[in-house]
Specification:
mainly alpha, 2 domains, 4 helices, rod-shaped
Protein backbone atom coordinates (compact mmCIF):
# COMPACT_ATOMS: atom_id res chain seq x y z
CA UNK A 1 0.00 0.00 0.00
CA UNK A 2 1.25 3.45 -0.90
CA UNK A 3 1.81 5.27 2.37
CA UNK A 4 2.55 8.71 0.93
CA UNK A 5 0.06 11.37 1.84
CA UNK A 6 -0.84 13.55 -1.13
CA UNK A 7 -1.86 16.69 0.75
CA UNK A 8 -0.10 18.70 3.41
CA UNK A 9 -3.27 19.37 5.40
CA UNK A 10 -4.76 16.08 6.59
CA UNK A 11 -6.33 17.38 9.83
CA UNK A 12 -7.37 20.93 9.10
CA UNK A 13 -8.60 21.88 12.56
CA UNK A 14 -5.38 20.87 14.29
CA UNK A 15 -2.98 22.02 11.58
CA UNK A 16 -4.60 25.42 11.00
CA UNK A 17 -4.67 26.11 14.75
CA UNK A 18 -0.99 25.13 14.96
CA UNK A 19 -0.13 27.37 12.00
CA UNK A 20 -2.19 30.25 13.39
CA UNK A 21 -0.39 30.12 16.75
CA UNK A 22 3.00 29.99 15.02
CA UNK A 23 2.12 32.87 12.69
CA UNK A 24 0.72 34.96 15.55
CA UNK A 25 3.85 34.37 17.60
CA UNK A 26 6.05 35.38 14.67
CA UNK A 27 4.00 38.57 14.09
CA UNK A 28 4.36 39.47 17.76
CA UNK A 29 8.11 38.84 17.74
CA UNK A 30 8.68 40.74 14.50
CA UNK A 31 6.64 43.72 15.64
CA UNK A 32 8.32 43.67 19.05
CA UNK A 33 11.69 43.80 17.26
CA UNK A 34 10.51 46.74 15.12
CA UNK A 35 9.10 48.64 18.12
CA UNK A 36 12.18 48.09 20.26
CA UNK A 37 14.51 49.18 17.47
CA UNK A 38 12.37 52.23 16.75
CA UNK A 39 12.17 53.39 20.35
CA UNK A 40 15.72 52.68 21.49
CA UNK A 41 17.96 55.70 21.43
CA UNK A 42 20.58 54.73 18.90
CA UNK A 43 22.94 56.78 16.84
CA UNK A 44 21.35 55.54 13.58
CA UNK A 45 17.85 54.68 14.69
CA UNK A 46 15.41 52.46 12.87
CA UNK A 47 13.73 54.55 10.20
CA UNK A 48 10.16 53.66 9.33
CA UNK A 49 9.11 56.15 6.74
CA UNK A 50 8.30 55.95 3.06
CA UNK A 51 9.96 53.04 1.31
CA UNK A 52 11.38 51.64 4.54
CA UNK A 53 7.87 51.00 5.84
CA UNK A 54 6.84 49.27 2.62
CA UNK A 55 9.98 47.10 2.61
CA UNK A 56 9.46 46.11 6.25
CA UNK A 57 5.79 45.28 5.52
CA UNK A 58 6.67 43.12 2.50
CA UNK A 59 9.42 41.32 4.40
CA UNK A 60 7.05 40.74 7.33
CA UNK A 61 4.36 39.32 5.01
CA UNK A 62 6.86 36.92 3.45
CA UNK A 63 8.13 35.89 6.88
CA UNK A 64 4.60 35.26 8.11
CA UNK A 65 3.82 33.26 4.97
CA UNK A 66 6.97 31.20 5.48
CA UNK A 67 6.13 30.57 9.12
CA UNK A 68 2.58 29.58 8.12
CA UNK A 69 3.80 27.13 5.47
CA UNK A 70 6.56 25.78 7.69
CA UNK A 71 4.17 25.19 10.55
CA UNK A 72 1.78 23.34 8.23
CA UNK A 73 4.65 21.11 7.14
CA UNK A 74 5.79 20.58 10.74
CA UNK A 75 2.25 19.82 11.92
CA UNK A 76 1.90 17.37 9.04
CA UNK A 77 4.51 15.21 10.79
CA UNK A 78 2.04 14.98 13.68
CA UNK A 79 -1.36 14.98 11.95
CA UNK A 80 -0.27 12.62 9.18
CA UNK A 81 0.72 9.74 11.48
CA UNK A 82 -2.46 10.20 13.51
CA UNK A 83 -4.45 10.01 10.27
CA UNK A 84 -2.68 6.75 9.35
CA UNK A 85 -3.22 5.28 12.83
CA UNK A 86 -6.95 6.07 12.77
CA UNK A 87 -7.28 4.62 9.26
CA UNK A 88 -5.59 1.36 10.27
CA UNK A 89 -7.51 1.07 13.53
CA UNK A 90 -10.75 1.51 11.57
CA UNK A 91 -9.73 -1.32 9.24
CA UNK A 92 -8.96 -3.46 12.31
CA UNK A 93 -12.43 -2.72 13.69
CA UNK A 94 -13.82 -3.98 10.38
CA UNK A 95 -12.04 -7.30 10.94
CA UNK A 96 -8.78 -6.82 9.03
CA UNK A 97 -6.23 -8.05 11.56
CA UNK A 98 -3.45 -7.84 8.98
CA UNK A 99 -3.58 -4.03 9.13
CA UNK A 100 -0.37 -2.39 10.32
CA UNK A 101 0.62 1.23 10.92
CA UNK A 102 3.42 2.08 8.48
CA UNK A 103 4.79 5.57 8.95
CA UNK A 104 7.36 7.51 7.00
CA UNK A 105 10.87 7.65 8.41
CA UNK A 106 10.66 11.21 9.77
CA UNK A 107 7.07 11.08 11.05
CA UNK A 108 6.31 11.48 14.72
CA UNK A 109 4.90 8.63 16.84
CA UNK A 110 7.22 5.88 15.59
CA UNK A 111 7.29 4.10 19.00
CA UNK A 112 3.50 4.28 19.25
CA UNK A 113 3.08 2.84 15.76
CA UNK A 114 5.48 0.02 16.62
CA UNK A 115 3.50 -0.72 19.81
CA UNK A 116 0.25 -0.85 17.83
CA UNK A 117 1.86 -3.15 15.27
CA UNK A 118 3.23 -5.48 17.96
CA UNK A 119 -0.17 -5.61 19.64
CA UNK A 120 -1.83 -6.44 16.33
CA UNK A 121 0.75 -9.17 15.70
CA UNK A 122 -0.06 -10.76 19.09
CA UNK A 123 -3.80 -10.45 18.49
CA UNK A 124 -3.49 -11.95 15.02
CA UNK A 125 -1.52 -14.92 16.43
CA UNK A 126 -4.17 -15.51 19.10
CA UNK A 127 -6.93 -15.49 16.53
CA UNK A 128 -4.92 -17.83 14.29
CA UNK A 129 -4.57 -20.27 17.23
CA UNK A 130 -8.33 -20.16 17.81
CA UNK A 131 -8.94 -20.79 14.11
CA UNK A 132 -6.52 -23.71 14.23
CA UNK A 133 -8.38 -25.30 17.15
CA UNK A 134 -11.70 -24.86 15.32
CA UNK A 135 -10.13 -26.48 12.22
CA UNK A 136 -9.06 -29.45 14.34
CA UNK A 137 -12.60 -29.83 15.66
CA UNK A 138 -14.02 -29.67 12.13
CA UNK A 139 -11.57 -32.34 10.90
CA UNK A 140 -12.81 -34.89 13.41
CA UNK A 141 -14.63 -37.86 11.94
CA UNK A 142 -18.21 -37.04 11.17
CA UNK A 143 -17.68 -33.33 10.47
CA UNK A 144 -18.89 -31.04 13.25
CA UNK A 145 -18.52 -33.60 15.99
CA UNK A 146 -18.60 -32.43 19.57
CA UNK A 147 -15.35 -30.90 20.69
CA UNK A 148 -13.17 -32.93 22.98
CA UNK A 149 -12.42 -31.63 26.47
CA UNK A 150 -8.90 -30.87 25.26
CA UNK A 151 -10.23 -28.69 22.41
CA UNK A 152 -12.57 -26.87 24.77
CA UNK A 153 -9.79 -26.29 27.31
CA UNK A 154 -7.50 -24.88 24.62
CA UNK A 155 -10.27 -22.66 23.24
CA UNK A 156 -11.09 -21.44 26.74
CA UNK A 157 -7.41 -20.70 27.41
CA UNK A 158 -7.15 -18.67 24.19
CA UNK A 159 -10.41 -16.83 24.76
CA UNK A 160 -9.53 -15.96 28.37
CA UNK A 161 -6.66 -13.85 27.07
CA UNK A 162 -9.24 -11.37 25.78
CA UNK A 163 -10.66 -8.94 28.34
CA UNK A 164 -14.27 -8.22 27.48
CA UNK A 165 -15.80 -7.10 30.77
Amino acid sequence: MDNRRKTVVVNGRFQYQYALVAAAASVLLINLFIIVNTLLPDYRGFLLNGWHTLIVAVVEIFLIGGVWWGSLIASHRIAGPLYVMVREIESISEGDFTARVNLRRYDMFQPEAEAINQSMEILQKRIDRIKSIVDEIEKQPGGYAPATPDHLARLRAELEQFKTT
